[in-house]
Amino acid sequence: MSLSLYSTYRQRQLEALLEISRALTSRLDLPSLLRTILGYAAEMVRAEVGYIALTMPTGNLRMATGYGLPSNVFNALAPYLAQKSPEQDFWNEAELRRQLGIVSETSGRVLEQVVALPLVVEEERILGGIFLFRAGSSGFSAGDRSLLRDFADQAGIAVRNARLVEQLREEKARVETILQHSPNGVMILDPFLRVIIINRALSELVGLSETAARGLPCSQVLPLQNTTGDHLCLNDVAPPAPTSIWYGEGDVVRPGQKRVTVGVTYSPLFDRNGNLLNVIATLTDITRYREAEELKSTFISVISHELKTPVSLIKGYASTLAREDAHPDETTVRESAAIIEEESNRLNDLINNLLDASRIQAGALKLDLGDVALARVAQVAVERFQTQTDSHRFQLDFPPDLPLVHGEERRIRQIYDNLIGNAIKYSPAGGAITVGARRDDGRVVTYVSDTGIGIPRDEQASIFERFYRVDSSLRRSTQGAGLGLYLVKAIAEAHGGEVWVESETGKGTTFYVALPQAH
Ligand code: ATP
Ligand code: MG
Fold this sequence. Notes:
Blueprint: H1 3-25, H2 30-44, E1 49-55, E2 61-67, H3 71-82, H4 93-107, E3 113-120, E4 126-134, H5 142-181, E5 185-189, E6 195-198, H6 200-206, H7 210-213, H8 218-221, E7 224-229, E8 246-252, E9 260-270, E10 276-285, H9 287-322, H10 330-361, E11 370-372, H11 374-386, E12 392-397, E13 405-407, H12 409-425, E14 431-440, E15 443-450, H13 473-477, H14 484-494, E16 498-504, E17 508-516
Parallel strand pairs: 12-14
Antiparallel strand pairs: 1-2, 1-4, 3-4, 5-6, 5-10, 7-8, 8-9, 9-10, 11-13, 14-15, 15-17, 16-17
Helix pairs in contact: 1-2, 1-5, 2-5, 3-4, 9-10, 10-14, 11-12, 12-14
The structure holds adenosine-5'-triphosphate and magnesium ion.
Adenosine-5'-triphosphate (ATP) binds next to α12 and α14.
């Protein structure tokens, strides 16, 4: 080649490479990029036919783009390439001759020269290959090969970039899926604490759609109440963003919705230069945990209150009797002893109730089942209570043919004791108390009804909870730990039965307990 010809050639080569680099950096898609590279490569080495094949995830090759390649040649090559793996012994003379054979035969052209170069980027796996064919007896020179090396490198970079973009896209989709489907609320904030992304769980919790929340200051999206700990999203005036993880707790309160207590973790995300990029806020629902804590403190206050009264009464009467200078008459001694006994019984009941409640809590309420005649159990209970009150009239209402119940007598006695005890306690003006039962479709439903103060409708669901007492003037003047109905419900359920209430304030209350009939 003459010098001037050579320099034109060099110039053309540089132009081609420049063009390809430009195409690489612009947003051209992979197929058209490879087509451009292949086109220049073929032109530079005066090849008539060529193609670029890429390694598939399976490890085999697939045609990516062709140059001067009729469809029948393409069709003949595809199955051949599909069996080949570029990582294995593929780049040898025999394989190349075989390809040359297929191409010449199907294209009807006499092609004698072939050159193939693997596409490799920085010692990575082989991404594919570039293959060129031409007629004539002169083979591809060392110059041709080194030139082609440049094109193969460019193609390698293009393929790798495309794969990286693809990977990034997949990775992003994966992270987004995790974010969106996380049961915990998540929001991503910009450095000014405005919402960029909010996931489904959080958008449901705060009742704001993602579009509505986007761009708002996080204090508006997450207005927390009763907060403790460190919070970013509290005020409109942004505090300095955290340099490490912050944690705080608070309540999400929405009209008409149950209060939800959440723990919020704020994690800052910095760029390489230490500038704040985002704050990621993650919310966990800790309502149950909070409730358990509240229950524990209620437990302690109720118990200490309930223990104090009988203990101070017992102590008072006992120390009066024990005074050396006191010479009580017989009636005083008997009355004092009766009070001491009554208060000790109350203590005993309370302790038993507490033990039962903790057994139920531990899921260990076991029944010793037998056949129980409700009428008799109710009668014994009524007789016992009758001695304690003059202002209440008791009635029994049991049909003579009432079936036996399949249950544990001691526990059923406990049901009556609690329900009749309540009926007396919450009918301070006295009145009629009826205890009865009816057969009901394989079950026996027993009831205790009174004409007392009644229970407001919106309290009726809560009275079966542990330590729950309806707030009324009676609450302060009567004793009680709020455990009785909790036990009644647990006992009924342990029998496979249920309990419910019908009540009207000022008129009276009826508790129903359904128990299984004995066979
Ligand atoms: P304890 O039974 O542990 O001594 P308690 O009687 O207060 O205490 P429960 O028997 O569980 O607790 O009853 C819960 C609440 O339901 C009571 O505090 C009371 O407010 C209400 N209640 C229960 N029975 C009646 C009733 N027959 N009439 C009106 N209110 C009732
Ligand atoms: Mg009670």
